């Protein structure tokens, strides 16, 4: 995503080009904006009726106001509902602010706070990679694929097996789930989770049939259960509106269910559906979908970059998929009248760093290369697919801020000499660690995409660039489909602005 993409949003159009070049992450909500600079400073400006700006009050700001609590934290993600707001740092810490009458901020109280405050308790030694929220409850996903929940629990939407509210994060159990969780989502009174097996689990209130059952048959459920009707379908992405869900399959099809008052299910009616139903008439294989808690519209983008919408948009109800002139998913939400907001953070492309470029271009000294995967001198072992890779903590922490925090901070990995890697292939993790010692990458484009995702997770921007070069150089007509399939499977890890160059 380039700096020009900020100009799609009216609130950023008046900023100087110099300032826009400094922004690496930004969100927009109801006339206000928060942005993070490449110098790791965080500012808010604009309207602030809901306390979105994190300034400790609800006063609008014409001046760009520094959000001190988030500065210096290397903020990588910002998420929000209507009255609750969250920021995630590169080390996986979560900061929360907003309405808290049900403990939905996870701070151990039910007192509102309008200043970003770090969530502690069970998350203190965890690395959070995703936050999903309604205005009443919150889910977080950690790097080891554990799910924690907190907030209002009248309908069992926390998935804890009871109906008691929680003001501190509590871990969920996915009994006999047959996989690990890769993504979570919150609807107004219920919750969803996607597993690496392609299965979707749901729990909470069965409003509008969102649990996949008739409301006459099931009122609520307080533990995660598989969504019926998706058997034999591999789902790779889930998104939710206020009370409807979209599921994207690995063959580029979209299924919808839940509330349909504005036609947001795309089934040609405005009747609710408790059965996940394939949406027809989109006109091509879908590569991504979007929806949001704050607006009753569903959006998809095809392989041919056609943007398709259904639901309520700009005063018009579209009960069936309708092709638009929009160029991206983000642009749809940028053009909403009055209520324009980002459905995901805007991640601006980093300018080339000449220091990184120089280091990347130079080969590592021969003596350093010889120590990679050397069992005699290593002090850390990574076990991937049952095979060991030997490394040195000093080398890793010198080149990677995430490893530096991991080995020097209060993480469970800090004192462990052996770590089990569960969600990456041996070949890719081997190439990842080898890069620390050699500055060299040599692999097939399909694997380079997984390496890109791994480098993104560990905040290795130089390795991200090298991975993209391999993809761009190596894509052909013959391997394009397999690369694209791999991109979909990695959707939870690869930044959503990544576009496979073919």
From TrEMBL:
Residue windows of the RCC repeats: 92-144, 145-197, 198-251, 252-302
Lineage: superkingdom: Eukaryota
Entries under Pfam families matching the protein: BTB (PF00651), WD40_RLD (PF25390)
Keyword tRNA-binding (UniProt): no
SUPFAM superfamilies the UniProt entry points to: POZ domain, RCC1/BLIP-II
Domain BTB positions: 378-445
Keywords: Repeat
The protein, known as: BTB domain-containing protein
Source species taxonomy: Eukaryota, Metazoa, Ecdysozoa, Arthropoda, Hexapoda
């Amino acid at each position: 995503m380039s700096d020009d993409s900020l100009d799609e949003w009216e609130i950023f159009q008046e900023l100087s080009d110099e300032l826009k070049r400094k922004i690496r992450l930004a969100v927009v909500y109801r006339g206000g904006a928060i942005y993070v600079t490449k110098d790791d400073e965080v500012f808010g400006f604009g309207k602030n009726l809901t306390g979105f700006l994190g300034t400790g009050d609800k006063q609008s700001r014409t001046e760009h106001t520094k959000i001190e609590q988030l500065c210096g934290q290397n903020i990588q993600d910002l998420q929000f509902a209507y009255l609750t707001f969250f920021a995630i740092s590169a080390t996986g810490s979560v900061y929360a602010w907003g309405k808290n009458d049900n403990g939905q901020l996870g701070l151990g109280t039910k007192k509102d706070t309008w200043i970003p405050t770090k969530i502690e308790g069970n998350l203190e030694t965890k690395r959070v990679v995703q936050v999903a929220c309604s205005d009443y409850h919150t889910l977080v996903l950690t790097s080891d694929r554990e799910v924690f929940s907190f907030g209002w629990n009248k309908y069992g939407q926390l998935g804890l097996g009871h109906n008691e509210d929680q003001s501190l994060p509590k871990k969920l159990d996915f009994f006999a789930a047959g996989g690990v969780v890769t993504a979570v989502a919150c609807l107004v009174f219920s919750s969803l989770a996607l597993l690496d097996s392609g299965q979707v689990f749901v729990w909470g209130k069965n409003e509008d049939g969102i649990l996949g059952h008739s409301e006459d048959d099931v009122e609520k459920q307080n533990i995660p259960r598989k969504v019926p009707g998706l058997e034999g379908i591999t789902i790779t992405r889930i998104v939710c509106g206020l009370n409807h869900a979209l599921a994207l399959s690995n063959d580029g099809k979209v299924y919808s269910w839940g509330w349909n008052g504005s036609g947001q299910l795309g089934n040609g009616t405005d009747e609710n559906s408790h059965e996940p139903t394939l949406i027809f008439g989109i006109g091509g294989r879908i590569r991504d979908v979007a929806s949001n808690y704050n607006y009753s519209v569903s959006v998809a983008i095809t392989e041919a970059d056609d943007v398709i919408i259904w639901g309520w948009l700009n005063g018009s109800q579209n009960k069936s998929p309708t092709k638009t002139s929009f160029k991206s998913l983000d642009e749809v939400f940028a053009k909403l009248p009055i209520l324009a907001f980002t459905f995901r953070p805007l991640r601006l492309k980093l300018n080339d760093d000449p220091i990184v470029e120089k280091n990347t271009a130079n080969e590592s000294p021969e003596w350093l290369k010889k120590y990679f995967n050397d069992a005699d001198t290593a002090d850390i072992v990574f076990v991937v697919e049952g095979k060991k890779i030997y490394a040195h903590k000093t080398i890793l922490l010198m080149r990677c801020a995430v490893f530096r925090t991991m080995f020097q901070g209060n993480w469970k990995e800090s004192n462990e000499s052996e770590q089990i890697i569960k969600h990456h292939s041996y070949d890719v993790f081997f190439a990842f660690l080898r890069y620390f010692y050699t500055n060299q990458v040599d692999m097939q484009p399909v694997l380079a995409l997984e390496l890109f995702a791994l480098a993104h997770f560990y905040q290795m921007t130089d390795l991200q660039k090298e991975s993209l070069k391999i993809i761009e150089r190596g894509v052909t007509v013959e391997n394009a489909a397999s690369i694209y399939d791999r991109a979909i499977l990695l959707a939870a890890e690869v930044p959503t602005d990544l576009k496979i160059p073919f």
